[in-house]
Amino acid sequence: MNIFSYKAILLDLSGVLYDGSRVIKGAAEAVEKIRNSGFVLRFVTNTASKSAHTITQDLQSMGIKIDEGELFTAPLAAKAYIEQQGMHPYCILPASLGTDFITQYDADVADCVLLGDAREGLSYQAMNEAFRLCQKGAPLIAIGMNKYFMADDGLQLDAGAFVRAIEWAADTKAVVMGKPSAEFFKQVVASTGFSAHQCLMVGDDVIADVKGAVDAGLAGCLVKTGKFQSGDETQLPEGAFILENINELI
User: What are phi and psi of 70, to 5 degrees?
Assistant: First the structure.
C-alpha cells in the first residue's frame, strides 16, 4: 500500500483518534504527520451526541489540530437536507446537540422523523410516535446507521438498531445522512477538490467506514482500535487494507 498515491485522508473520530474521552496513543502526532506530509484532511463522523463546536473543542483539547471546514458530521448533513426539503421534523436527538441545532416539531404537526443517538431519549413513547408518523408515510431520516460504538465503559448500542426497528415496523426505508451513505461520502469528497479514488477513508467500523467508502468509490482502511472486533477483517471489501492503528498510516 502506497499512502502517497492518495491526495486526501478522511479520518473517522471515535475509535480512530479517541475512545470515549481518552485519546488513542500517538493519534495527535499521527494527524500532524499526515498534515505535514501534504495531504488534505477531513474529519468525518456520525456522532450525534455532540455538537460540531463541542467536537472541535474536544479534538483541540486532545492536541489534535483541526481547521475550519475540515469537520463533516452526519447531524449537519441531516440538518441541511431537511432545510433544503422544507420539512418539519419530529426529532429523537440528544440534548447535547442543542435546541438551536434545528427547528423541532411535535408529532401531531411533523411531516418527517429525524432519529439520532439520543440514548435515554430513545424511549418507547418517542419510538412509537416515530413509528406512527412513518407508518402514515412520513420520511425517516437517520443520522448514521452504526450498530455500536466504543465508549469509556465498553461497547454501546448505536442508533442504527433503532432505525432498523422503525424501518421494519413501518415498512419503510430510512434516508441515511452520514456513513455509509454514498451521498454523504460524495459531499466530503467534493470538499477536497479531488476525485473519490484519490481519497482514503480510515475507520474502525468495517461496514460504515470502510465498505461504505469503497462502495462510494474511495479507498478504505480499517484500524484495529475502537470498536474493531476479531473477525472484522474477514469482511473487508476487495482492495481495502488493515492496520494496527492510525500511527501505521505513514
Answer: -90, -15
Give the HSE-up count for residue 3: Cα atoms under 13 Å, Cβ half-sphere: 19
The ranges of the chain with pLDDT < 50 are none
Residues 141, 195: Cα–Cα separation, whole Å: 27
Return the bridge partners of 222, or none: 203, 242
- 124-135 and 160-170 helices cross at what angle (nearest 10)? 40
Helix extents (H) in the chain = 27-36, 52-61, 74-85, 124-135, 160-170, 182-192, 212-215
Q: Which of 108, 94, 73 is nearest to 187 (CA)?
A: 73
Q: What count of other Cβ atoms lies within 10 Å of the Cβ of residue 215?
A: 14
Q: Which pLDDT score is estimated for 99?
A: 66
- Angstrom distance (rounded) from CA 49 to CA 181: 19
All three cell numbers of 35, joined, read: 498534515
What cell does 237 get?
471489501
Q: Which residue has the cell 469509556?
A: 152
Question: In the structure grid, which three cell numbers stand for residue 216, read together?
Answer: 462510494
Q: Which helix (H) or strand (E) holds 109?
A: none
- Cell output for 248: 501505521
Cis peptide before 139 (omega within 30 of 0): no
Can you tell me the distance from the alpha carbon of 117 to that of 46, in angstroms, rounded to the nearest whole number?
A: 9
Nearest to 142 by CA among 105, 107, 183: 183
Structural domains in the chain, sorted by start: 3-74+179-248 (3.40.50.1000), 86-177 (3.40.50.1000)
